[in-house]
Amino acid sequence: MSNMPDLGINVPIHNTDENEDDDDESTNIVNVHDPFFLWGIFEHKDRALIRAISILSDADCSRLYWSCHYHKHNRVCQYVLDNNAPVCIARDAIEKISIMAKAADSKSLDLSEIPVPFLLPTSPQFIVTELRDGSIIPSKGKPLKFTVLDREGNTKVCIYKHGDELLQDAMCVAVMKEMNAIFKEENVDAEVVLYEVLPVDKSEGLIECVENAHPFLEFKKTASDNKDAISSSDALKTFIEKSPERKGNLFRTFLGFVVSGIVLQLSDRHDDNIMITEDGKILHIDFGCAFGQQTKLERLLGIFMDIPHSPFSEDVFIAMIGHESDNEIITQLWQTIKEHIWACFNAIRLHKNRFKPLGEEKFKQLYDTLMVGLNDNDARDALYIELEKCYNNRFNSARAFYYKIQQNIVS
């Protein structure tokens, strides 16, 4: 294994055909840490990528390899495998995990067959030395869930899915990463909580789960199961009040939660794919419906009502302020939140061109969603109208009722 330190982001190489003179090559950059590298890889010829490999760390070689693997850059992939043992072992490990996931047989799962150590493809700085707790999730596609450990005993929970195209999920995560970078540059105190997604092939991939996250549905179940008949807002409020940092985290990540849902035009939002972490951060998961796509239910009900992209209820406000009796405080908080969300939204508008790697179609959708053609005042007014759609929208109740019926049928 290479002891070479991670050399950072930018690797100067040349983007030319093999028969061109080196002196005439135009300098390009292989930036494996760019959130959009998976889509920008076509800017580089195989020869350029191979030349970059010699000065990349093992972790960065892994990032390069899996991007090339998805796009079938076989020449580059073979070169990496021939010259980097850690990546080669990771390739073998993922192949075995893929076979187990496709078999979907919990009784025959033997994770000891997976070769170790290997670089975890979603977080290649994490060196897996053991896999445990393998199980097949009884849901659509029957994905394989397992835990990986490194030498220090640190753990990550992963899911390997097959039968799903995860490229769109990866694209949404890439946009969220760029949003966070923009917030940091513009001194906007907000965060989009995200997780790593790696499309391995056109219909399978690896997901790294958010640690210690609870679906919003848990708080509603706690309320419905409690003998004292507490409300879902009480359950969430009690959870947030258990730790001083949770309230601040909830406010800061709520801003990112709402603005990312609107910008990405997320759909299929319900209480089982809206999560809250142990430290109080709120986030979206599952991006199978994004960029204006809708479920059948949403297309049907959309005839009669608005469909919000980041639906939420008053429960979140009650958790932030600590009580539910003062409507005036809730109204003031809502106005403050709208102003903060506008600051997030406008920061993204200012840096709209950073999303061009999405491709012409997706970039145009994002350009329109950001209302770039409007002046700031008109864009802010339009955003506030969209936010009102997200707040206690009657579609939330209709979806919750439909989802509860689905859950009862499954159980």
Automatic annotation (TrEMBL):
Location of the region described as Disordered in the Swiss-Prot/TrEMBL record: 1-25
A Pfam family: PI3_PI4_kinase
Keywords assigned by UniProt, alphabetized: Kinase, Transferase
CC per GO annotation: cytoplasm; membrane
Domain PI3K/PI4K catalytic: 130-411
Sample GO molecular function, one term: phosphatidylinositol kinase activity
Cited SUPFAM superfamilies: Protein kinase-like (PK-like)
Gene3D superfamilies associated with the record: Phosphatidylinositol 3-/4-kinase, catalytic domain, Phosphatidylinositol 3-kinase Catalytic Subunit, Chain A, domain 4
Gene Ontology BP terms: phosphatidylinositol phosphate biosynthetic process; phosphatidylinositol-mediated signaling
Keyword Metal-binding: no
Listed name of the protein: PI3K/PI4K catalytic domain-containing protein
